[in-house]
Amino acid sequence: MAGAPEIKVELSPESINKIRRMAKEAGPTIQRRVNKGLRVAGAAGSEAAKRTVLGPPPPKADQRTKTQRALFREKRLGRNHGSTGLRAGIAKGTRVSLGTKLGIRIVSSSNALPANQKGMNRVYRLKSFRHPVFGNKRAWANQNGVDWFYTPIRKATTGMEAALLVAMEQAVSDIAKGV
Q1: How does DSSP assign the chain, residue by residue?
Q2: C-alpha–C-alpha distance, residues 164 and 107, integer Å
Q3: What is the pLDDT of residues 111-141, one digit of tens each?
């Protein structure tokens, strides 16, 4: 395209939105390719957050004092209470979102969680929170949360920025070629 406007590739929501608008005008195949490239660029942060939330859980009070052999014996005898699927549901809801105003964001939705755990997605990120002990509203416990969301994304930022610049440059060249 001879009359294609020159785009300065920079990491800002405005330039990302400009590229996405131009890709939309260029046609659906270019638009899909550009959106896919942008999502892949943000996937490094999303995957880092998922790995952290699915990693080993924080130790419970009884796990801090018992030996590994005693914990294995209890688990084998069926004394462990199992999992509610909270961490797996949080990881399932973590994804890359392409917005029109904010550019690329990594979001965590509670849609994959059961109704009684919907608020835990937000609470699980806090440094500490209070909750009733086994649903007993008269006995409350303080619990430490895990920074599974912000810290891993911050650590993956440089890789995401590099991948995003490559994806944006590829998008600009696709739009210019009209491919």
Answers
A1: -TTPPP----SSHHHHHHHHHHHHHH-HHHHHHHHHHHHHHHHHHHHHHHHHHHSPPPPPHHHHHS-HHHHHHHHHTT-S----SHHHHHHHTEEEEE-SSS-EEEEE-STTS-GGGTTHHHHTTSSEEEEEETTEEEEEEEEE----SHHHHHHTHHHHHHHHHHHHHHHHHHHHHT-
A2: 17
A3: 888 888 888 777 777 778 887 887 788 888 8
